[in-house]
Amino acid sequence: MPNHRQLFLSHLAQTSASPLLLEIERAEGIYLYDKDNKSYIDLIAGIGVSCLGHCHPKVIQAAKDQLDKYLHTMVYGEYVLTPQVKLAHLLAEQLPDSLNSIYFVNSGTEATEGAMKLAKRYTGRSEIIACKNAYHGSTQGAASLMDSAFFTQAYRPLLPGIKHIDFNCLYCLHQITTKTACVIVETVQGEWGIRPPVEGYLKALRQRCDEVGALLVLDEIQAGYGRTGSLFAFEQYGVVPDVLLLAKGMGGGMPIGAFVSSKKIMNTLSFDPLLGHITTFGGHPVSCAAALATLECLLEEKYIGEVKQKESLFRKLLIHPAIQTIRSAGLMMAVELDTFENVQAVISRCLENGLITDWFLFNDKCLRIAPPLLITEDEINKACKIILDALDAVFTV
Questions:
Q1: Which of 9, 14, 200, 261 lies most in the core, judged by the most C-beta atoms within 10 Å?
Q2: Please, which residues have CB within 8 angstroms of residue 390's CB and are 6 or more apart in sequence?
Q3: Is the pLDDT of residue 288 over 70?
Q4: How does pLDDT run across 176-207, given as a tens digit for each residue?
Q5: How many CB atoms sit inside 10 A of residue 27's CB?
Q6: pLDDT tens figures, 263-279
Q7: What is the CATH number of domain 16-51+303-395?
Q8: How far apart are CA 188 and CA 292, in angstroms?
Q9: CATH dotted code for 58-300
Q10: Are 285 and 70 in contact (CB under 8 A)?
């Protein structure tokens, strides 16, 4: 009988020629455990997903309780389901008054797709503007927002009517016109290698969208849910979007996403045509129950308030001649080295020593650090020592 790795390679579709092939048996807190019970510090939280760590007791209990009641019942938006209603209400309470209507989907990519349709429907326009080196998802529509030919060339033609501008470029804002349905930007660019907005950029972007009647869509699929030091990253920059995209950390490990807007804007999906956007599994009751527990825990506990302190500790400890710079927005961090080859070597050495890190789609010279928010100071010290040891090994060969 083939082992699990052989079956994995035989029957699961591959996304790269050299998958990590970690055979995970269980997970708890910031740790993953393989079949030999070797532990790994998950310093990327499943790419920003496990904000409360793995298998948080409150999230697990909420999911189990919902499992005993019901699973899928009907396509999203037809039945009144308690987990959806409670989650939407609590989420709306944390947001500005204009972000009071929530459409639950299964992922960040789907949130992007929904927002693109919403902007076209509400404005009657077809042009969408995105930023260079931004990532909003991998489906055909969301991938059209990428300017990188490396990731999209094989799948062209992409959607028409997409323009790209430079993030943080005030001069570029004049390209937003009365033909523009929406501008979609990450509040903090993630896959570029962590790029926060410069002072005044988002306010100027907000003003330009208002001048021409375009919707401002802020993608917080990675940056949301406390990762930057506030529940939503846009709270730190004095702007409110017309549409907000959420996913990743939202479900505490369960698949869920959302696009959020005003009741006025969102209602346009309900007529001409009716069922303007539909999903079978979006807002799944178990995912919503887990997401509700996740949000309640983030609001009740002190994790978000500790993000900046933990960010500072990482910065204090990660000092090495091989590190060229560190960019961060809370516990979204990029540690820049010199070459992709050395980044890969450090990643491999860290993995050998029980730590998982990664690189970025549009900046392969950086190590990704995005741990669960509940990581402790002792665990940060341990993680940084493994990284520094790996840097010593790679850069002294």
A1: 261
A2: 346, 349, 350, 353
A3: yes
A4: 999 999 999 999 999 999 999 999 999 999 99
A5: 18
A6: 999 999 999 999 999 99
A7: 3.90.1150.10
A8: 25
A9: 3.40.640.10
A10: yes
